[in-house]
Design a protein that fits this description.
Blueprint: E1 6-10, H1 14-26, E2 30-34, H2 37-44, E3 53-57, H3 65-73, E4 80-84, H4 89-98, E5 102-105, H5 110-124, E6 139-142, E7 145-148, E8 153-156, E9 159-161, H6 165-176, E10 182-183, H7 184-192, H8 200-213, E11 223-226, E12 230-233, E13 245-246
Helix pairs in contact: 1-5, 2-3, 4-8, 6-7, 6-8, 7-8
Length: about 260
């Protein structure tokens, strides 16, 4: 299965845009470059030829990358890889909170970016979601929550859940391993395929998932925090909180 796709590169630095476009084209992608936020929104919302992924610079004239990401997330789950020049944890977390699927810090290796783009596209198309015990990509269910893995769709009750590819993969992984505690580093490796990286990425995605699937995200009952360890998925049929968990995130981190 080919993982090439239509990639929209949004960067006001023509040199950076050219280098990124060249490397992505070498990887087989069809690349379009724009230099500002409004143009990015128009192109990303195109009904004729929408992008499969957006590479979005954080620092843009007029409308910054965070605002572009925020507006895209109002109507779209297109994967977004954000470029941040400052490289501080705050910038990365704000980008992830806004809805970015991944980030690369400037200065970056164009080859690293190309590999990240390939990885995010694979996940967005569902090819890295692990199969169940039967080897089939069947639906995953827990009470009124259902993930149709083959269609890459999610629902809660009668409502459709709008999940990014990372959110979908994280939720699918947790559903496949109920009542099993994982550290953030383990989730980073199992879901993101990263053997190194900022584990606060996991914290942000857990928070975003809680906002979408929990009745009260401040007192989660599905994705619970395991004190001193990380996170665990509790099936809907549980009756009492298990020992060692807290109803809310109190691990001392941002989660």
């Amino acid at each position: 299965m080919s993982h090439a796709g239509r990639v929209l590169v949004v960067d006001d630095d023509p040199t950076v845009a050219e280098v990124v476009a060249r490397y992505l084209a070498r990887d087989g992608h069809d690349v379009v470059c724009v230099a500002d936020g409004p143009a990015a929104l128009r192109r990303a919302r195109s009904l004729d030829d929408p992008p499969d992924l957006v590479v979005l610079d954080l620092m843009l004239p007029g409308m910054d990358g965070l605002e572009v990401c925020r507006r895209l997330r109002e109507t779209s789950t297109v994967p977004i890889v954000m470029l941040t020049a400052l490289g501080t944890e705050t910038d990365r977390l704000v980008g992830l909170e806004t809805g970015a699927d991944d980030y690369v810090t400037k200065p970056f290796s164009p080859r690293e970016l190309a590999l990240r783009v390939r990885s995010v596209l694979r996940r967005a198309r569902g090819s890295l979601v692990p199969a169940g015990p039967s080897g089939l990509l069947g639906p995953l269910r827990d009470g009124d929550l259902i993930l149709d893995v083959s269609a890459h769709e999610a629902g809660l009750g009668s409502e459709h859940l709008s999940l990014t590819s990372r959110e979908f993969d994280l939720l699918a992984f947790l559903l496949r391993h109920p009542r099993q505690a994982f550290t953030r580093e383990q989730l980073l490796e199992q879901v993101w395929d990263w053997t190194f990286g900022d584990s606060s990425t996991v914290t942000v995605h857990v928070r975003r998932l809680r906002e979408k699937i929990e009745d009260d995200p401040t007192a989660p009952r599905r994705i619970v925090t395991v004190w001193g360890v990380g996170y665990r998925y509790e099936p809907a049929d549980r009756t009492e909180p298990a020992d060692g968990t807290e109803p809310a995130d109190r691990t001392g981190d941002a989660g």
